[in-house]
Amino acid sequence: MWFFRRKGPSGFSSSSTAEEVTEGINASGLTAIVTGASSGIGTETTRVLALRGAHVIMGVRNMAAGKDVKEAIVKEIPTAKIDAIELDLSSLSSVRKFASEFNSSGRPLNILINNAGIMATPFMLSKDNIELQFATNHVGHFLLTNLLLDTMKKTARKSSKEGRIVNVSSEAHRYPYREGIRFDKINDPSGYSSFAAYGQSKLANILHANELAKRLKEDGADITANSLHPGAIVTNLFRHNSTISGLVNLLGRAVLKSVQQGAATTCYVALHPQVKGVTGEYFSDSNLAKPRPQGQDLDLAKKLWDFSMVLVK
């Protein structure tokens, strides 16, 4: 069991679960997209949002796994409104197809949770020839968010309800390459470190949310954008590293969060009234936190935005 239990100003702590941080919140009438929803904290986030009444669209790479998750949740919560659409974040064409299918459905969109991720993979390039962790964890979500923004803006205007964009980052953002984002060497296998590349992609999640928050404010859109660290969790993110996988299995229950605790901060930032109007911030353990200085660098955030725009063109 997770043992650092001290509550923060929000009234919640690292041991709070997603159900606890959303207790009493009515999300009926809200529509949410959760990427990477077929496993780990993505599944738990989907379950809890559905439990609170939201209509959840799962973005899943494996439709069979998505179907299983949907059936399991509906069995537990017969009133749950859940749909699944195929989405491979490492493929820009898959992202475009997902966004096109969602936008043409005429559904509203109140909440976008950019949750999907891969961790510490060996050096590989995506279908679009972008280093795989950067492609999946950042670039795919960057494009997805841009393609869904008009729908979110329209929904916020029509419903008079604040839209929320939530980027699931990680404390690993503190350990990227020395320069933070290797703009000139993003696809360079020499000097590639699977962990620094993961840290780089997680730093990008924070910078993306910050720059997006700034742009949405300038637009006068009633949409917030925040990022968060879910906590060290027992999930299959570690599958590419057998040593860490072994350690996780050995120590997991004692020092890592459960999936229920791991999904808490995401659900808190997505639904809690305490977070209304809060934008461009970083959260951990369902409380405000501070990212490393690079994660607060406005120039770096703007540079990443421009760089990402070129990559998705």
Automatic annotation (TrEMBL):
Domain of life: Eukaryota
Pfam families: adh_short
InterPro entries referenced in this protein's UniProt entry, alphabetically: NAD(P)-bd_dom_sf (IPR036291), SDR_fam (IPR002347), TIC32 (IPR055280)
Species annotation: Prunus dulcis (Almond)
Family, similarity comment: Belongs to the short-chain dehydrogenases/reductases (SDR) family.
Full protein name: PREDICTED: short-chain dehydrogenase
Gene3D superfamilies reported in the protein's UniProt record: NAD(P)-binding Rossmann-like Domain
